[in-house]
Amino acid sequence: MSQSPPNVRTEEKTLVKPARLGLMGVETYRYYVHDPERSHRFYTNNLGFKEVAVSTPELEKQEGAKFRVYGANSIRVEVGAPTDKRTWAARYLDLHPDGIESITFRVRDIEHAKKFIEERGGNLIDDEPEVVIRDGGVYKRISVASPLGDVIYRFVERAGSYDNHAPGFERIGDLAPRNEFGFRFVDHITSNTLTMMPAIWFYEQIMGMETYWHIKFHTGDVNPDWHKGSGLRSIVMWDPESGIKFATNEPLAPKFRDSQIAQYCSDNFGSGVQHIAFALPDIIGAVEELYHRKVLFLDAPDEYYASLPERMKLKKIFNMDKPIDRLKDLGILLDGEDNHYLLQIFMKDSQTSYAEKKAGPFFYELIQRAGAQGFGEGNFRALFESIEKGQQGNVQPVMND
Predict the structure, then answer these.
(1) CA 265 to CA 193: how far, in whole Å?
(2) For 23-171, CATH number?
(3) What is the distance between the alpha carbons of residues 186 and 306, in angstroms, rounded to a whole number?
(4) How far is CA 27 from the centre of its chain?
(5) Any bridge partners for residue 133, and if so which?
(6) Which of 25, 99, 67, 62 shows the shortest CA–CA distance to 270?
(7) Could you tell me which CATH number the domain at 185-392 has?
(8) 297 DSSP 8-state letter
(9) pTM of the model
(10) Rounded distance between C-alpha atoms, residue 271 and residue 252, angstroms
(11) Given a cut of 50, is residue 244 above it in pLDDT?
């Protein structure tokens, strides 16, 4: 009979599952604006969102702001405009242009989320979760200071039959209405900051996220004579359970101040959310119609499309059946590998679209994934260079409300 060698102990190893916050997805985000009627036209006329809820007089008195909520499938945005100069809503727009003031995430258990965040050193804004009971349903919410300055992160638990958008709102329609362009959910959220490691530490240590993807480049490495060349570093963090992804960008030296990431922080008067990406199934059809509705998109350089067939061969993408000329006409970008690809396009930021600084540097991205779950290194760089060139020239706005 065989025996174990002497002085050797055999042990059964147990895989320890990482602790999780219990995230389920992006519930909503709050966007403060100077011109709410323009935003109403943009979401309803241009993007095909439906108005799904409005603030009650009680909430408007409490917040000193009036809100309208727009929805497209699982995406919901609260657009707020101040009505009282003495409140946080007005103060936010004194400090910043139009932009994302808060992001709300849905969690399975608010008490678990609160304990999880507290034990890891997160800074709670609320002493205890807000609890609202309505028609047998329960809504619980707590707010946390984020690594993005004046941006707040909120966490919400829904239980039972609670079917309102949130306390203080009156529901006026289906909270998840069908969208004609097929916008389905928030694919990822991208933020800009002058130094990103505090944000990365927050996502990892406070929210329990993991590194998903990263990139670092400088435009001078391919064109050293480009007098405005600059660079960035980006790290994407994600929550494997919910699939929520945060991309965070920072500018790089040399020419740190010339980077469009640094320019964003200057225009926004601090760190903030640069863009939010909507996932959809048919980007070509959506973009064709959005152009008809006078939505502005960033242009990609001709060189990008000239080299695209060769890049597709190198990355072994042989199953993409969309004509490259059509992608070029629309400004849609392509990336991926091993017959998994993604198509994406970026709207021009609001301050460019409306030729108005206080409209802010925020914009939206549209992304169609065909198996590829990354961010597209070539596309990422094309976006960076396109924004950078736009900042160097005089862009003439043509956005119609």
Answers:
(1) 6
(2) 3.10.180.10
(3) 31
(4) 12
(5) 138
(6) 99
(7) 3.10.180.10
(8) B
(9) 0.89
(10) 15
(11) yes
